[in-house]
Amino acid sequence: MKFPGLRKIKHYFPVSQPKPQLPSFEVCPQMDTYIVGLDQTIVDVVATVDDAFLVKHAIPKGLSNLVEHDKANIIYQELIENQAISDHFAGGTIGNTIHNYSVLADDKSVLLGVMSANIALGSAAYHYVRHTSSKVDMNHLQGVAGDIGRGITMITPDGERTFVIDPSDMDELEVDYIPTEIVQSAAAVVVSAYPLRAVDKPIQQAMLKTLVDAKQKNVPVVMSLGTRHLVEENRAKILETVKKYVNVLAMNELEAEALTGFSDPLKAAEAILDYTDMVLITAGPVGLYLCGHTEDNVKRETTNPIKSASLADFNQYEFSRPMLREHCEQSIKVYSHIDPYLGGPELIKNTNGAGDGALSALLHDMAANHYHKQVQPLSGKHEQPYLAYSSFAQICKYANRVSYEILVQNASRLSKGLPEREDCLEEAYWER
User: 113, 142 in Cβ contact below 8 A?
Assistant: First the structure.
């Protein structure tokens, strides 16, 4: 597990110690610290077209269109012939998140989902594997005869974006391909709300089994909401799932409003914390909020300027560390907020994946806590059953920095980790 900051103590391998074994790319539940992510495996395709192309294929402009596989193939082949495709990106909110986690932690993660059994050069599956970190263990994917999902973004000369979604076999994940031991030995399990709308598809039951397995062994469950429209359509089912299984909920401000009815992120977070233990809300140019619970007896006051908005002095205890409500004798709600890193980039090249980047930083901190507890169980850092290694305020800094890195590049996934001196913005980051 790679920790941000300068933490190297030994710079050599003592000759008195046995030589280390060759590294394994497959996760070993009893040895490794890792997270597990379940996702609808999908590739994002970006293409430039004119209005005539949309009319020819009867694709409504400016909307997200669910298209049959055969029709999507015809559209895709014509885009190739016209040399209209500019980029292929591995997609999926959870795929993005665990890829980013493995880049940040320089450590293993496990992806659960489907993958084409036969991967052809240039296929969607080929591009997915090509753009995913080698530290992501794909050995537990379910092979399918068809293709993984494909999302085609078609940009017309006026800048309007039109989406064609081809699910193909991405929802065919069977319950039998959920490895219980892998799930129950993880530092955290992360899923999205998207499978909740996949009615009558195997992936819905597969996700349920993952959640049940995690809950049996008290593995923290993290859920990312999809889009505002998804939340509006499935609000009751999402809230039921969150209340029963989820410890950490991640979303943007629009999804938070759809879930709670509050447009103000603080008020939305306050409401959501009645259902779960921690919430991460990204709010674009406003920055991001990380809110949760801690034990009243161990709360820590901030030395940062006190902020007031819809909640007075809301960041007063942001130097506290997150805890599960059930582990608190007297829990209090804690709120932390941070403005965009460096005021935000001068030029935003891509907004897709910024929230996934912030979530990967939070997961890294949670996994670091899990790892440190294993190797230093008597450390004062574990006098309480904390959910994360750092304080709310410090996790905000880290998540904010990772989001910035996504915003200044074209892709929705990190291509490399943060600069060594900037991993935590200060060397004492992990010691607070």
Answer: yes
Q: What is the pLDDT of residue 417?
A: 78
What is the SS3 assignment for 164?
A: strand
**Paired tokens of 333:** 């709600």
pLDDT category at 409 given cuts 50, 70, 90 is: confident
Q: What are the tokens at 174?
A: 């069977």
Which residue, 306, 308, 292, 297, is CA-closest to 396? 292
Q: At what angle do helices 235-245 and 202-216 cross, to 10 degrees?
A: 30
Say which CATH architecture domain 220-431 belongs to. 3-Layer(aba) Sandwich (3.40)
Longest pairwise C-alpha distance within the chain: 72
Kindly report, residue by residue over 249-287, the tens digit of the pLDDT: 999 999 999 999 999 999 999 999 999 999 999 998 899
Helix (H) / strand (E) element for 331: namely strand 331-338
What are the CA-CA distances from residue 196 to residues 176, 235, 395 (Å)? Answer: 19, 10, 29
Q: Which amino acid is at 281?
A: I
- The first and second tokens of residue 255, run together, are 């999804």
Rounded-to-integer distance, Cα 409 and Cα 183, Å:
32
Cβ neighbour number for residue 69 with a 10 Å cutoff: 15
- Its sign, for the CA torsion 366, 138, 246, 374, is negative
| Domain residue spans of the chain | 220-431
